[in-house]
Amino acid sequence: MLHSPADTTVPGTTTAEPAPARLSPCQVALVSAPYDEGPQLVLPLGLMNIAAYAEDKLGERVDVRLYDFAGYEKADLAPMRRLAAHGVEVVAFSVYSSHVPTVIAWAQELRRLLPGVRLIAGGPHATLAWSEFVACYGHIFDAVVAGEGERPFTELLLRHLEGLPFDAPPIPGVGVRTADGTSVLPPVGPTVETDEWVNPFRSKVAVGTTTRLVYNDHVDRRTRSAVALTTSRSCPMKCYFCSIIAMPDKYRSAKPDQLVGWLREAMDEEPFEHAYFMDADFFTSRSRVLAFAGALHEAFPDLTWSTSATVGHLIALEDKLPYLKECGLRFVEMGIEAGSDRELDFLGKKNFGKPATAVQSVQAVSALQRLGLGVGVDYIMFYPHQTLEDLALNLVFLRRADLVDEPNSDHYFTELMLYPGTPLRTFYENLRGKPFDLELLPELDDLYIDGRVLRIRDLFRGEFRARYLERHETLLDRLVTAARQAQPENPARARALRFAEVRLRHVPYRVLEALIRNEGTTSLDSACPWLEEAYATAEALLASARPEPAQLVGAGH
């Protein structure tokens, strides 16, 4: 990656006279630990921003590198032995609510291996549960950063270089626990404005995924090499379930020419053909989106891009979607969350910013589908205050929005997660009469008001996913590949394979539909006696030389 030294002044912080020159740069590691979603192809974007900013400010005095260990097993301590062997002096962990025990165990192991290392924690969970985290783990971490990390982390590095303590004078947004057990929590400092942001592609990666990020372009029917970045901070929406609502940062976004400059710099280093913009809501400003799309297309005529949007913001740009497609837009992931207005009210989707209704969600999806643009769905399929009717309406929405044929089935399995500081977490804590454990995301079983929904959730998210999901995804990939390979020489077989692929995409919907229809069942097999044969039929078709009539019909349709 790229690297450029600059002055060592960190806005809003206290600096000291320089210490004697070091013989070599200070070795700094920014660590992403494993979490429940499994191996990630996208590098830790927040850490990329922090690494680039710190090196821009401190220049050759530091060697800051990303260590993306997200693909490791949580119990595997080998990554910490690797860091210890490298002789790192400062290590910062990005902490998410889904992996607090892992980060604590890893930090303790690193402290054992390198007693003199300075350990820092930050990230979403450390921010949302700042005071509790400092009180519980301030004896492990030398500092805990709340809010955006660029300025406080850079000031901590500067103090380390100068041999100064982290706690005096206090650094805005840096919590510490003193020797007598007292927590010191200075107010969070001002956010870093957009003109101070540093190109995240300048960060250096020591450990990352070995697989190059790609995008499968269904418009141009080709696979594109890709990069990912965020172009904004925070979110103007305030949904009750979202952790962003509790963050101290304000929403702001980079200017179009700034983004184009970043991408041009990265393109010169290593060419790519697609950009994933991983913002919470990229479509917030109509004028910014249009200006950005035009600037991007002018600079990189062949570059495509994908991003995310809320329903209301996408509808506000519906008339400009053909233009955005001409400028390279290929895919939009939308935060739809639920299939009925009652559920949307409960989740807080209708109470802030541009309101969204179920009808508007269908409108937004249809607008993308008419242009052949890809659609991703952020959905909360299960949550404790859900009725059986609500769950059924979630499926009705997927059918009305013509989303049953989507190859990705992740949205079928999602359940509400209660992040610290969010209104919904407070709501459920008040119901149960005591707070949840901050080390773990809460188990929700005891909160479900409808036992039928809970039973269906267990059969679907538990038994069906455990028994069939890996097989399901593998078969879909094999069918797509086989159809592509068969097309030149055997179009009939290619058609049969594509038909089998479409049928297989419907299986999660059909399973959940069958469980709702048989609400009293306690067995996946009794509700879906056709399930095993559906997969066996697809496997038999792949194994055969040509399609046979019986293989094209299958069971249960």
Beta percentage is 5-15%
Overall 3D shape: globular
Residue windows where pLDDT falls under 50 for at least 5 positions: 1-18, 547-557
Alpha carbon gap, first and last residue? 52 Å
Q: Mean of residue pLDDT? A: 89
Kindly report the spatial arrangement of strands forming the biggest sheet: 7-6-5-4-3-1-2-8
Structural class of the secondary elements? alpha/beta
Q: How is the biggest beta sheet arranged? A: 8 strands, mixed
How much helix is in the residues? 40-55%
Count of helical regions = 20
Determine Rg (CA atoms, Å). 25 Å
Q: What is the number of beta strands? A: 16
Characterization of the model:
The chain is α/β, with parallel strands linked by helices and 557 residues long. The chain is built from 20 helices and 16 strands. The strands form three sheets. An eight-stranded mixed sheet has the order 7-6-5-4-3-1-2-8, with helices on both faces. It has a six-stranded mixed sheet with strand order 9-10-13-14-15-16. It has a two-stranded antiparallel sheet with strand order 11-12. Helix 8 links the parallel strand 13 and strand 14. Helix 1 packs across helix 6 and helix 2 packs across helix 3.
